[in-house]
């Protein structure tokens, strides 16, 4: 995340800024409120402002008010002296997200930042759904996808736990939306839990909720995603990212259809359908001890595999025409593809599947540059100096290359890779990449 620290005490400014930067965030510093406002006007893509309450000239409250006028999506955390909680409460009434008291506690700082990061990630995903309502329609012509749709209809008609698996970008989430839309639970919510995007130390409370006072920062009771999905469907997106300790609790939910919030002894009965997705070889994850075998059998009661786009040449054609028409209309263009150009598209392997195809068509149209098709016939840069063609070796090499381009800024590298920063951290550990 892009975080600004505003503090008129030079030692405190250095201390807090360097710590936040060490956690992989991009940090902006301001020694007074006036300078902070100037920087924010020039950098409205800042995600979070952490500001001291009492400062000379422009205090933290005025910083908060001006930040919200510039960009209401920027969150603000207020720092107050110990015992001045009245100031903090007043600031929160004026729009602050939360407050910290001096002396600062690193665990508390991390907890609040991670909550904001999760919130923003989910907000971004929700916004992307609003902007791509048309994309929720399933576009296909192949017999392989027709088989997938028939299985989806079976899942929708039955209250059966379903696992949707397939490579990244094949449309697993869209298929889950389709199942919800045609099911008898359509009038109730489809709640999505993006497991890879939720920090490991927050995933249990995000899924199951927590009791007030259950841990530092739990200032009020919190209803988790399972409760919000009651009577409807919960989608556990990339379920293999859930840590082992939470897998145990998830197993109990699947067995008994009941949950207990963090810090709470009572159980709450639920009536819901569970759909899980993964882009990993889940049997391999079980064999390697990363995913519980008993949980695998619970989520894999009914399985739907979405085949990769390279195995569905008929779908490449209809998807290309769909996105071409959509973006031509949106950007007032008249881009068309010749038979030769369509053959290039159909003969490409599409490692990023539908997501990659969609992004390519969009870029060709907004840039009015069909020479981008030439890149599809060239060997990808990530294969340079790689003697193995195993997926993990190629992925490791690509992550190393992107980290170098991003000068080891993990937030920037994750953004370039199109993944969450926590997913990048996990992959760095998994592949033993030396930062």
How would you portray this structure in words?
It is a single chain. The chain has 435 residues and is α/β, with parallel strands linked by helices. It has four domains: 2-117, Response regulator (Rossmann fold); 137-305, Rossmann fold (3-Layer(aba) Sandwich); 311-378, Helicase, Ruva Protein, domain 3, CATH 1.10.8.60; 385-430, Orthogonal Bundle (Arc Repressor Mutant, subunit A). The chain contains 18 helices and twelve strands. The protein has helices at 10-22, 33-42, 60-70, 85-93, 106-131, 143-157, 172-182, 203-208, 225-228, 244-256, 282-287, 293-299, 313-330, 339-347, 353-367, 391-405, 410-417, 421-430, and strands at residues 2-6, 26-30, 48-52, 75-80, 98-101, 162-165, 190-194, 233-237, 258-259, 268-269, 273-278, 302-305. Helix 3 (60-70) links the parallel strand 3 (48-52) and strand 4. Helix 6 (143-157) packs across helix 7, helix 10 (244-256) packs across helix 12 (293-299) and helix 13 (313-330) packs parallel to helix 15 (353-367). The chain is globular.
Reported for the largest beta sheet, the result is: 5 strands, parallel
How much is the average pLDDT? 86
Report the structural category. Answer: alpha/beta
Low confidence ranges? 128-136, 379-383
């Amino acid at each position: 995340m892009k975080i600004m620290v505003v503090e008129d005490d030079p030692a405190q400014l250095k201390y807090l800024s360097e710590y936040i930067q060490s956690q992989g965030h991009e940090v902006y510093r301001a020694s007074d409120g006036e300078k902070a406002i100037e920087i924010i006007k020039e950098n409205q893509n800042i995600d979070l402002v952490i500001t001291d309450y009492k400062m000379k000239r422009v205090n933290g409250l005025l910083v908060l008010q001006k930040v919200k006028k510039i960009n209401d999506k920027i969150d603000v955390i207020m720092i107050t002296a110990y015992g001045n909680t009245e100031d903090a409460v007043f600031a929160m009434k004026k729009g602050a997200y939360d407050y910290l008291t001096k002396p600062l506690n690193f665990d508390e700082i991390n907890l609040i930042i991670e909550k904001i990061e999760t919130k923003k990630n989910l907000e971004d995903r929700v916004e992307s759904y609003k902007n791509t309502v048309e994309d929720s329609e399933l576009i296909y012509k192949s017999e392989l996808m027709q088989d997938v749709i028939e299985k989806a209809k079976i899942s929708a008609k039955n209250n059966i736990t379903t696992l949707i698996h397939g490579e990244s970008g094949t449309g697993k989430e869209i298929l889950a939306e389709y199942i919800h839309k045609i099911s008898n639970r359509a009038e109730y919510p489809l709640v999505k839990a993006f497991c890879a995007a939720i920090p490991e130390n927050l995933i249990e409370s995000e899924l199951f909720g927590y009791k007030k006072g259950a841990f530092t920062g739990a200032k009020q009771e919190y209803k988790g995603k399972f409760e919000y999905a009651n009577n409807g469907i919960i989608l556990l997106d990339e379920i293999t990212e859930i840590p082992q300790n939470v897998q145990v609790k998830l197993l109990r939910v699947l067995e008994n259809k009941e949950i207990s919030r963090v810090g709470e002894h009572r159980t709450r009965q639920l009536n819901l359908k569970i759909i899980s997705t993964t882009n990993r070889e889940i049997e391999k994850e079980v064999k390697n001890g990363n995913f519980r075998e008993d949980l695998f059998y619970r989520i894999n009661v009914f399985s739907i595999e979405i085949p990769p786009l390279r195995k569905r040449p008929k779908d490449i054609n209809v998807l290309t025409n769909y996105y071409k028409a959509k973006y031509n209309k949106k950007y007032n263009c008249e881009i068309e593809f010749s038979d030769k150009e369509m053959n290039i598209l159909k003969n490409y392997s599409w490692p990023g599947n539908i997501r990659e195809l969609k992004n390519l068509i969009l870029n060709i149209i907004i840039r009015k540059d069909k020479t981008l098709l030439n890149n599809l016939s060239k060997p990808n840069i990530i294969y340079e100096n790689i003697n193995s063609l195993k997926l993990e070796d190629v992925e490791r090499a690509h992550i190393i290359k992107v980290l170098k381009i991003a000068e080891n800024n993990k937030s920037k590298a994750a953004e370039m890779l199109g993944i969450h920063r926590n997913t990048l951290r996990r992959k760095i550990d998994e592949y033993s990449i030396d930062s």
